[in-house]
Amino acid sequence: MVERTLFRTHPLEDRIPALDAAETAGLRIEAEAEVAAVDLRVDLAGPGVDAAARALGARLPTQPNTWTRTHDGQAVWLGPDEWLVTSVAARPHEWEHALIAAVAPYGGAAVDVSAQRTSIRVSGARARELLSFGCALDLRPASFPVGSAAQTTVGLAGVLLLALGADDFRLLVRPSFAGHLADWLLDAALEFRADPTARPTAAAFP
Predict the structure, then answer these.
(1) By its UniProt entry, which InterPro entries does this protein fall under (predicted)?
(2) Bridge partners of 149?
C-alpha cells in the first residue's frame, strides 16, 4: 500500500497572483497566512475571565464590536460571553488545549475553529472606499474607528470585519466564500486602476 502525504493549501492559493497584481497606489489586497483560532466562552462575572487574561497576556475586550491585541494575536468580541481568539505562534490544537486548561476549571470552554475562517487584508488610502462599495456599514473613521469589529457582509459574503488601522482592515471569511470575496474585491478594485480594462492576469475570474 502506497502511503500518501496530504499538504494543506491556502483557500485562495489560485488567486494570490491576481491579488498581488491588483496592488495600486492607495490600495493593497492580500491573502494572509492562516493562524490558530479558538472560539472562547467564559463568564465575564467569574474568575475564568482572569484565567483567560493570564493565558492571553491581555484582557478580553468587553465593549461590543471591538477587538484587542494579545501577546501574539487578537481577541475579538463576538457576544457577551464569546470571543474569537487568534495566535500567530501556537498550533491550532495546542492553542485550544492551552485555553481549555485556563478556563475549563471555571466553567469556560474553548473550541478550535482555525479552519473556519480565511483572512484577507485590505489596506491603503482607498481601503475604506473599496469596502463601502459592498458593505452597508458606515465605515467612516468616526463610525468605525481603529479597534472596531463587526459581523457584517462585504460583496454579499458574510465576514468578520476588523479595523486594524486608519486604512487597514482584516476580513475573516468562511473558506467556501473566500474565492467569491476575493473575486469581488478584485472586480471592485478596477475602479481605482489607471486603465480599468486592464484586469489582473490570473485565474481570479473563472
Answers:
(1) SoxG, TrmE/GcvT-like
(2) 162
The phi-psi region of residue 96 (left if phi > 0; otherwise alpha if psi is between -120 and 50; otherwise beta) is alpha
The 10s digit of each residue's pLDDT in 4-46 is 766 678 999 999 999 998 888 899 999 999 999 999 999 999 9
Q: Is the pLDDT of residue 196 over 70?
A: no
Cell readout for 205 is: 475570474
Domains with residue ranges and CATH for the chain = 13-33+116-192 (3.30.1360.120), 36-115 (3.30.70.1520)
Q: Work out the burial of residue 172: count CB atoms within 10 Å of its CB; fewer than 13 is exposed, 13-18 middle, 19 or more buried.
A: buried
Burial degree of 25 (CB within 10 A; 0-12, 13-18, 19+): exposed
The cell 474569537 sits on which residue?
Answer: 84
